Amino acid sequence: MGTKIELIRGQDSMTVEAYLVELAQKHVNDYVLLWKEQLRLYGQEDKFWDWEFKLRFIISRQENREGYAIEYEGETQGLMLIETQLHGSRFTEGKRLIYVEGIASAPWNRQFIQRPPKLKGVGTALLAFARTRSIELGYEGRVGLHSLPGAEEFYENQGMIDLGEDEDYDYLIYFEYGVRRFPG
Fold first, then answer.
1. Which residues of the chain have pLDDT under 70?
2. Pairing state of beta strands 15-22 and 3-9?
3. By residue range, what is the domain housing residue 52?
């Protein structure tokens, strides 16, 4: 069944229950059949991402890779691929973090494509789960990623720290969450 999460329905701002689950072939099929053409039509920066390849050759064959999806009413709303063992924090030398290799929201959840979006909070929920996974693995909530240019403002709004362009990653901006401190 997965982990219950809350999203916000765009049309009336009502909270709805969705589920965060492990990435499966069904989610890839939704991506190919329902997302891909819309992403291409609207010129989205992630239009060439190959989630079929990510599932079949990366996640299923590498223990340090995990894939997740968000489902609402049986439809895939978001996708995420993380790496769990090989990346280190740029804040704290020698400390590991969860590295987000890919994160995407369905086209109908993107304000650029549909207003109001069908659901709000998909990307936020996926990032929150990456932080939770980081804590589970003993990485104290550290998460890092390279942002596509169109998503930089989103990561800044999530409280991630902009650590500048990375020449090793096509000059994409690298963002990172530092250690998550809990009160008490």
1. 180-184
2. antiparallel
3. 3-177
Nearest CA among 163, 132, 158, 110 for reference residue 3: 132
39, two tokens:
């992403």
Q: Tell which phi-psi region holds residue 159, choosing left (phi > 0), alpha (psi between -120 and 50) or beta.
A: left
Q: How many other C-beta atoms can be found within 10 angstroms of the C-beta atom of residue 115?
A: 8
In this predicted model, what pLDDT tens digit does every residue of 34-54 receive, in sequence order? 999 999 999 999 999 999 999
Output the domain CATH number for residue 164: 3.40.630.30
How high is the pLDDT of residue 182? 55
Q: CB burial class (10 A; 0-12, 13-18, 19+) of residue 19?
A: middle
Contact between 103 and 80 (Cβ < 8 Å): yes
